[in-house]
Fold this protein.
Amino acid sequence: MKQNISQILQANAPIDVEAEGWIATVRTSKNVTFLALGDGSCAAHLQIVIGENTIERTLLSQLGVGAAIRCTGTLVPSLAAGQRVELQAQRIDLIGAVDPDYPLQKKRHSFEFLRTIAHLRPRTRTFGAVFRVRHALQMAIHRFFDDRGFIQVHTPIITTADCEGAGQMFHVTTLDLDAPPRANGAVDYAQDFFKQKALLTVSGQLEAEVFALAFKNVYTFGPTFRAENSNTARHAAEFWMVEPEMAFCDLAGDMALAEAFMRRIISDVLTRCEADMDFFDQWIEKGLVQRLEKVVQANFAHMTYTEAISALQQSNESFAYPVSWGLDLQSEHERWLTEKHVGRPVFITDYPRGIKAFYMRLSDDERTVAAMDLLVPGVGEIIGGSQREERREQLQQQLHFFKLNPADYDWYLDLRRFGGVPHAGFGLGFERALMYITGMQNIRDVIPFARTPGHASF
């Protein structure tokens, strides 16, 4: 198997090697041409030195930024600062020529512009780093759960159940949209492909609960969709969610897992992506690595929603959004709590029933539910979870409270009749976690091809 540039840069020189990739920069000095070659395998480029008369001038003139080449030569120690080795070219093959209007020339490009050329932006330093870290974070998540004996479940993308009960879901249909069949004035979904209304999932949690009650500890990791007309930097219509679910588990156990999870995935990325994280620290967010190290080392705090509201009301801060018991916490409230009030990550628990989902366990006061959000400095909420309602009567009560049709959740109610046990879980928005770890400020810049209102290109 051929070596990638990451492996070549670690090889002991001198040695004959063959390198393939795309030209990042071209520089000529005293009849010697220097190419910086990258293949995305690492943050560094391999310097290729082309001596005078090594290759034909016609070929040399075609070696522009963006061109794809294969270079055969000898890897030798480099005398230049900042690099251990360089490749002295003996032969170069032009694999893919580049037109003169190649847009990624050696200059700074705005993230807004790079979103318009998402098919080329992975070749830039920033997005190379983003997607290497994205891969490392994904693998860290799988390792974390695998080490603890969790089973991964591939939950369906097409569903008939609205997990969050908000109705902000995309419809899946083969009906003629210009003239759909109707019955009693409404669209007759009995004539659709699935013989009923079908939707793109917003969460794999409900299905994960099915498997947790058979395998005890499971997790899902897949794409989810939300038809929310929001153009903020934190929202996308298609995003990935990580959702563990644990049987015989209460809210305390759920928080313990979430805390261990955050420590592990951050530590893994810091260890495995040192060069990329240094890049983000230097160019995207100063002090990023130190901020993340503090989270790993911190003692996570705990407070109830009621205690949080009291602290916010007594803070003398001028918040843009009102603070009142029964209202959801906004990002500005969450950040004040974690950054100024406790100065470290904090779990907020026992939220009002009316602002959380129907499946969360109802407390004895019937005003709050066994929910938790993990807030971290820099962004606020990063994980949301709960103990699920395992009691059938209380779950039916919750469905009626949220005006949901129990018939749509008959199989979910069945789980409470056939060997149901207390169980809990949480959800992590993968892209939001990636934003937090890299310091990137827009969700559109941490996903390969963003889907947002009005945009579904590529």
Q: What stands out?
A: The first strand starts at residue 15 and ends at 29. The domain at 5-96 is CATH 2.40.50.140 (OB fold (Dihydrolipoamide Acetyltransferase, E2P)). The first helix runs from residue 5 to 9.
